[in-house]
Design brief:
The complex is a heterodimer. Chain A is of the alpha/beta class. Chain A has helices spanning 19-31, 57-63, 75-87, 102-115, 156-167, 188-196, 214-223, 262-271, 283-289; strands at residues 10-14, 34-39, 47-48, 51-54, 68-71, 93-95, 119-120, 126-129, 133-136, 145-152, 172-177, 203-209, 231-236, 276-277. Chain A contains nine helices and 14 strands. Classes of the chains: A alpha/beta, B alpha+beta.
Amino acid sequence: MGILINKNTKVIVQGITGREGSFHTKLMLEYGTKIVAGVTPGKGGQEVHGVPVYDSIGDALREHEANASIVFVPAKFAEEAIMEAIHYKLNPIVVITEGIPIWTTLELVRLAKKKGVYIIGPNCPGIIVPGEAKIGIMPAHVFKPGNVAVISRSGTLTYEISKTLSDAGFGQSVVIGIGGDPVKGLTIPEALKLLEQDPTTKKIVIIGEIGGVEEEKAAELIKRGEITKPVVAYIAGKHATMRTGVSFGHAGAIVLGDIGRPETKIRAFNEAGVPVARLPTEVVDYLREL
Amino acid sequence: MFLYEHEGKQIFSEFGIPVPPGKVAFSVEEALNIAEEIGYPVVLKPQILGGRRGKAGAIRFAENPDDLRKNAEELFHMTLHGEKISRILVEKKVNIAHEYYLSLMVDFYEKKIIALFSTEGGIDIEEVARTNPEAIVREYIDPDVGVTQFIALDMVNRLGIKGKKALKIASVFYKLWLALKQKDLLLAEINPLAETSDGDIIALDARVMADDNAAFRQPWINSLKQSRAGVESLEYKAKEKGISFVVLEGDVGIIGNGAGLTMATVDLVKEFGGKPANFLDIGGGAGPERVFAAIETLLKLGNVKVILMNIFGGITRCDLVAQGILEALQKIDVKVPLVVRLTGTNEDLGREMLRKAGIEAYTDMIEAVKKAVELAKEGA
């Protein structure tokens, strides 16, 4: 059993007929994820890799039972799609789409919270419970089942570090890519609280980066004793602060004045007793020691 | 993206926030014409994106054309915080009776708006917070409600400002909120917001940040970007090709796939004693054309002594990356050594393609980083 999703989670793919949506539907099906329907307005009646396509979630739900959604809809049209998923209380709603305006995300996340559903992302690789289900775009072969949870603001760096974990015998209970945007649904502190309750997870890896205050808030939780499981962190962008007010690839990887500086994050983690790996390859060494 | 002061003031004007009459000049002659039009005395304000201008002596006043010519010529030859001054805002000088501070900012974590008002304007708000915190009121605004007139008035009243003056400041607050919401802004700061000797309230500066993601519904964002020059122009042109590019100051050119991995590569180069020239992320699922464009972009930097590529193939295919590298080697004169770390999806195919072209790709990223740093030092 994993957190947020498991092998019984029934998924709707929003934007299934697009290039990305269709490609990753195939890969998710191959991994064993239960994809029950796809949605693209105007394409109802078609099929993508054997998955029936509907014009709307409402129509899909008349034929199928579903509890989660993954969104590939382009940024321009994503607001409507995510609103639809929130309306039908699909949970979680995994938003892969990059480039959604920050004000739009802010309003959607507030709405999702009111309705009691989780948004993961936007601009994220998704979530995988190795061996059970993958609702996302990550390359499945780097992950192995186990009891280390990974929470990450990154995509590729998560694959890189997860592979070193798998190779060293540290399988994963769940890997959550929470996304690279400044405003997002599930945050590092919220993910930590879920993982604290998850019986499978024994240790936690946080892959943070410059920008925002999530790492600092996570460190506060740990310091207050609300998270008792051992945590190791890595922060990307330690030396990318020569330019402030500029985003490094992720819209959220930006230093604004005193906010988002790597040294503040590292200090906060250290004060909470969380070791911060200097190199991505060192995460595994710290896990061994904990 | 951050806006120049004059761009920010343009937005303020659209929403009815008073700003001094003025225009931006790209030459001394233009500055003279503008001053003639609005009337002396004027203030000359270099337009740069970062840092303080006042402390650096870069804000000048001019009483007459001779005065203006002398000062404008000096300013156009100045470099401020690494930015060469290429545009100067020429504005009518205002008689200031008092300076206030006013700002609205999206709090990404709390998903609310932070509203700040202070009776101590004209200096850094961080400094006021340290030395005179009771001169600041802060309010977390629910974005569903917004900065209403009554919230704004209450904030102003709390610092002892009453009556007509309070109403004028609150009105600016409300208009700033409308601008923030309707223009997809993430930060809008007026420091100072001046009270003139005639009792008018007027915005003397503008620090505004707009959301790049909103460009599809705010076409003015891309128009502003297109009007930018230098480093920013290079970065914008790369963005149009799907590449995230940030210019740094060293000599090790860096290309990675994924923002996190690329940032980590920048960090590693620094950890092992090298100087990163840039951050360049080709993004997820890049094909040969984006790899080609990435190499081409890096070579435009001029000071790059080695190119380090760190590719972890997940959705990105190593063979397509190799194809892009080979095309670049054939079509452009790549004079600097290429260090490639290639692993993941289709890595055998990709490595074989590179091997035929005489490039031995690394699997381990630390080894690749060390090699690139070493080559940059040899090339020095």
